[in-house]
Amino acid sequence: MKIKGALLLLMFAVMAVLTGCEPLMVLNPKGPQAQTQADVILLSIGIMSFIVIAVFAILIYMLVKYRSSKQSDDYEPPHIEGNHIVEGIIVGIPVLIVIVLSIVSVRSNYLVEATPEGYEDQDPLVVYAQSSNWKWHFSYPEQGIETVNYLYIPTDRALEFKLYSEGPITSFWVPQLGGQKYAMSDMVTTLHLAADAPGEYMGRNANFSGEGFAENTFSVNAVAPDEFDEWVDEVQETAEPLTEEKYNELLEPGHLGQLTFSSTHLEFSPPPEGEHGGHHHGDSSDNSEEGNMNMDQDHEDHNHSE
Amino acid sequence: MDFFDRFAIPHPSPVIYASMVAITLTLVAIVAGVTYTKKWGYLWREWLTTVDHKRIGMMYLISALLMLFRGGADAIMMRAQTALPENTLLDSQHYNEIFTTHGVVMIIFMAMAFIMALMNFVVPLQIGARDVAFPRLNALSFWLYFWGAMLFNISFVIGGSPDAGWTSYFPLAGNEFSQSVGTNYYMIAIQIAGLGTLITGINFIVTILKMRAPGMTLMKMPMFTWSALITNLIIVFAFPVLTVALAMGTIDRLFGGNFFTTTDGGMDMLWANLFWVWGHPEVYILILPAFGIYSEIIPTFARRNLYGYKSMVASIVLISVLSFVVWVHHFFTMGQGAMVNSIFSITTMAIAIPTGIKIFNWLFTLWKGKITITVPMLYSLGFIPIFTIGGVTGVMLGMSAADYQYHNTMFLVAHFHLVIIPGVVFAMLAGLTYWWPKMFGFMLNERIGKLSFWLISIGTCVAFFPMFISGLDGQARRMYTYSEATGFGIWNMLSFVGAIMLAAGFVTIVYNIYYSTRYASRDIGSDPWDARSLEWATHTPVPDYNFAITPQVNSSEAFWDSKKNGHKLFSGEYKEIHMPNNSGVPFIMSAIFFVLGFSLVFSIWVLAVIALLGIFACLAHRSFEQDHGYHIPVEEVKETEEKLGGAR
Q1: Which pLDDT score, from 0 to 100, does residue A280 have?
Q2: What's its EC (chain A) (predicted)?
Q3: Inter-chain residue contact A59 with B384, CB threshold 8 Å
Q4: Which residues lie below 8 Å from residue B406, measured CB to CB, with a gap of 6+?
C-alpha cells in the first residue's frame, strides 16, 4: 500500500516540477516547433495521468476489498471465465485513446517537418550544420560565412538546417527551439526551426559519438534581424576566409573553441547531397542535382539583393 | 599495431588491474577447490554433460545471477560517476565502456539467461513432458550462451571492452572510429550466444507443439507455456536478423567490408535498421515470459482462475505481430519524413492496446479473489503500477513529433528501465521465489524476501523517476559528465541513491539464498503454494523423468481441478521410461566456439581455422554417432516413486 501512496505523491511532485516556477528546457519553448512539441508533451502527460490514476485506483480497490484477511476462512473464490462487455470496455477505451493520440501525433508530425506555421511568407535562412569529432561547423551559404561551435540566428525568420556528419552519427539538438535530428555521413537531413524570442540557447549533439561526446555542445544566439545583419557584415569584414588547409586541420578529432570565418567550406568540400551523396539512384539523383543547382542560384540571388 | 599490443588494455586503470588479479585468483580458487574436494568427476558427469532440462535451467539461473552482479557493478559505477557534476571518478573512455557492457550484459547475458532458466525448468513440467524435444541441443544452447558470455566478459581484461554503446551504431563501431578489439568482442560473443538462443527457439517450439500431455490442447495450455511458445516464435523470426547484422559487422571490422562505413557506398543507418528489426522484437522476447510468469502467480495467490484467458492469449499473439512493425520508432529522428514517422507512430501506440488488456485482466483476476501477499505476489503487484508508468511514457515516446525532444535523453532511459525492471527483473525474481521450492526443495525466507522487494521497488522509483525530469531539462543520455550550471546534479544524485538501494536489495537476495539454504525447512511437500498447474503435480525434488505416469489434462489448470474437482491426473501402470544419454560434446563444441571467437577477435587465423575444423569434427561425430538413449526399468521407477512419497 505504501508504495502506491508514494508513487502518487511522486507523480504530483513531478507534475508540480513540470509546471512549476523554473520550467524545464523542453517545456520552456522559444520557437514554434518547440511550442508544438511542448503542447503534444503536456497533452499526452495529461491523458496518461488519467490512465495511471485509473489503474492505481482499480488496484487499490481490489487489494483493499479482496485481501484474504478481510474474508472468512471458508470463502472459495468463484471461477470466472471473462465477460464480453467488460472486455469490450477494456479494449474500447484504449482504442479510443490511441485514436485520439494518433490524430495528434500525425498532425504534429506534419507541423514539425515543414516550415514553421506563420513563417511561410519569407525565404528561410539556410544553414549547413556539419559535425566532426567533436565539433559543429556551421556554414551560411547565403551570407558566405562559417562559424565553429556557435550559431547566430535571426528571430522571426524560418531556419532550415541542413545536417550532415564527418564521421559517426550525431544529432543536432537545440531543445528550446525544437527537437533533434540525425546528422549522418552519407546524406543530408533537413531540420525546420525558428526562434520567437532573442536569447542564448543551449545546443548539443544528443547522439553518442565517442570519447568527446559529453562536451560536444554549441551555443545559439538568437538576435533581432537587423542585429543579425550587422553581425554578418562584421564577420565578412573582420574574419579570415576559411582555407581548405585550415578546414582539414579543424576536422582533426578534438575540441575547439568558437571560431569565425568569412567563407564556407561548402565549395571545396561539398555536403553529401545530390551528386555528392553517398548513394546515387539514377534519375532521382539527377533531379536532386538539378534542385541543388537551382538552390545555388537562389543563394546567389540573395547575395545580389543584399 | 604489433601483434602482442592488441592484447594489452588500451585504456588501463587500477580497477581493471585489480579485476585481473581477482579473476585469476577466483579461477585458481575454483580449480583448487574442485580438485581438493575431488569433485571433477561429479562436475563432469552431473553438470557439464547433463542434458536434463532442469539442470540446464539451474545452470542458466546461476549464470544469470552472476551476470546480474556484473551488470549491476557497471550500473553502480555509472551512477556514481554522474552523481556529482564534473566528477572525475571515471574518465570518458571508461564510462563509455561501462555503459556499453552494462547494456549488453543485462539484456543478452542476464535477462535472456534468466528467461531461459525459467523456461527450461518450468515449460516441460508444465506440459507434462519428460524433457524438451531435443535435450542434447538444449545443452548446446546453454553452453554456447555460457561460452559467449565468458568471451564477452574477458574483454575488459584482454584487449579492452567495446565502447560504442550496446546498440553499437556504425560508423562509430567501425574500424575508423573504434580501433581497439572491443567491438570485435561484441560482434563475435553475441553471435555465439545468439546461436544458442536461436537453437533454443526451435527446440521449445517443437517441444510445446509436439510434447504436450494428452488432453492439453493449445487453448488449455497454462499461460506461461503460451508466452514461452510465442516468445520462441519471435526468437526464430528475429534472431536471424541479428545473426546477419553481426556477420556484416564482423566482415566490416575483420575483412575490410564496407556495409556500414562512411565511404565506398557504406550505409550507416543500415546497421541501425537491422539492429532494431531484431532489437524491438527482442524487447518482447524479454517481456512476454514475464507476462506469463505474472499470469501464473497472480491466480495462484488470488486463489482464482486467470480472468479472460482467451483475450490474454489473443493479446500476446497481437503483441508478437506488432513487435515486428515498430522498429523505426528507435530512430524517428533519422529524417525519413512525416509520412513514415506517422505510420510507425501509430503502430507503436497500438501496442498499448493488447498490453492494456493484459493489465486489466490481471486486475480483474484479483476481483472476488482471496489475496494472500507472498513475495512472488508482492513483486507481481508492485509490477502493475510501476510498469504502467513505464508503459504510458512509452506511448508518449511513440508520438514521433514529441520524440524529437525525448530521443537520446534521460527521459528515454527512465522509460525503458521502468518497463524492463518491473517487467523483466521483478518477474524473474517473482518466478525465482515462486519456483525455487520446486527446484531446490526448500522455500526462500519470506521476511528477507519482502525486505528485498521493498528495497528493489523503492530503489527503482528513486533511481529512475528523476531521469524523466533531467531528460526534459535537456540531459542527453550517455554523457559521462555535465557542468554544475546545468542543474542536473540533484536528479543524478537521487538516481545514485536509488541505485544504491537497488544494489542493497540484490545483496539481500543473495543473503536470503544463503540463509534459507542453511535454515529453511526441507519438509514442504510438493505443492507449498497450493498452486494450479502441472509442475506442482510431480514430486519435489523432481525425478529425472519428471512424471512417472504422463498426466491427463482437462483444462488450463489441471492440477487445481485434480485437487478441487476430483479430476484424475494419473492413471495406468508404471512403464519403462526412455531417457536421453548425457553427452560431453555440447560442452566441448561450445568451448571450441570460444577458442574460435577469441582467435577471430584477435585475427589469429591459424587458430581460427583449427577451431573451425574442431567444430566440424564435433558435428560429424554427432552425425555418425549411434545413441538411442537408455531405459529406466519399471522396478527403478517404482522404487524412486516410493522413496519420494508414493505414486501420484
Answers
A1: 52
A2: 1.10.3.-
A3: yes
A4: B396, B397, B412, B415, B471
How far apart CA B44 and CA A103 sit, in angstroms, is 61
Cβ neighbours, 10 Å, residue B464: 25
Question: For residue B5, what pLDDT band results from cuts at 50, 70 and 90?
Answer: confident
Which of B74, B46, B108, B364 has its CA nearest to residue B239? B108
Eight-class DSSP state of B129 = -
Q: What is the pLDDT of residue A21?
A: 53
Taking 80 as the threshold, does the pLDDT of residue A278 lie above it? no
Cα distance between the two ends of chain B: 67
Record the cell numbers describing residue B302, joined without a space: 488470488
Chain B closest-CA separation from residue A208 CA (Å): 6
In the numeric block, which cell numbers belong to residue B577? 521410461
Provide the 10 A C-beta neighbour count for residue A252: 10
Whether A291 shows a pLDDT value over 50: the answer reads no
Q: Kindly indicate the confidence band of residue B457, based on its pLDDT and cuts at 50, 70 and 90.
A: very high
For the segment A4-21, the average pLDDT, to the nearest whole number, is 58
pLDDT band at A17 (very low <50, low <70, confident <90, very high): low
For chain B, say whether A31 makes contact (Cβ under 8 Å): no
Looking at residue A272, the DSSP 8-state letter turns out to be S
Sign of the alpha-carbon dihedral angle for A177, B407, A216, A163: negative
Q: Are A47 and A97 in contact (CB under 8 A)?
A: yes
The band of A19, judged by pLDDT with boundaries at 50, 70 and 90, is low
Q: What's the confidence (pLDDT) of residue A296?
A: 41
Pairing state between β A199-205 and B630-632: unpaired
- CA of A12 vs chain B CAs: smallest distance (Å): 12
Residue B474's pLDDT is: 94
Q: So what's the pLDDT on residue A288?
A: 42
Residues in A touching B302 (Cβ below 8 Å): 66, 77
Which of A42, A62, A215 has the most B C-beta neighbours within 10 Å, making it the best mutation to test the interface with B? A62
Q: How far is A233 from chain B (nearest CA, A)?
A: 33
Taking only the tens place, the pLDDT of each residue in B234-251 is: 999 999 999 999 999 999
Q: d(Cα B124, Cα B535) in Å, to the nearest integer? A: 8
Query: Mean pLDDT in chain A?
Result: 86
Residue from A29, A194, A190 nearest A116 by CA:
A194
Interchain pair A98, B400: CB under 8 A:
no
| Residue that the C-alpha cell 564534473 belongs to | B86
Give B62 to chain A, closest Cα distance, Å.
30
Q: How far apart are CA B479 and CA B568, in angstroms?
A: 61
Predicted-assembly ipTM surpassing the 0.90 threshold: yes
Q: How far is CA A225 from CA A151, A154, A197, A228, in A?
A: 14, 5, 11, 5
What domains lie within chain A, and their CATH numbers?
2-67+79-112 (no CATH), 125-305 (2.60.40.420)
Establish whether the linkage from the previous residue to B327 is cis, with ω within 30° of 0.
no
Residue A297 has pLDDT above 80, yes or no: no
| Cβ pair B304:A179 closer than 8 A | no
Q: What's CA B569's distance to the chain center, in Å?
A: 33
Please judge whether B384 and A55 are an interchain contact, meaning their C-beta atoms are less than 8 angstroms apart: yes
Residues in chain B with CB shorter than 8 Å from the CB of A14 are: 465, 468-469
Residue A117 — very low, low, confident or very high, per pLDDT cuts 50/70/90? confident
Q: How far apart are CA A264 and CA B579, in angstroms?
A: 76
Q: Of B321, B465, B328, which is closest to residue B400 (Cα–Cα)?
A: B328
Look up residue B468 and give its three cell numbers: 524523466
| Interchain contact, A26 vs B479, CB within 8 Å | no
Determine the Cα–Cα distance for residues B77 and B72; give it in Å rounded to an integer.
Answer: 9
Domains of chain B, earliest start first: 1-296 (1.20.210.10)
Which residue from B388, B395, B478 is facing A55, i.e. has the nearest CB? B388
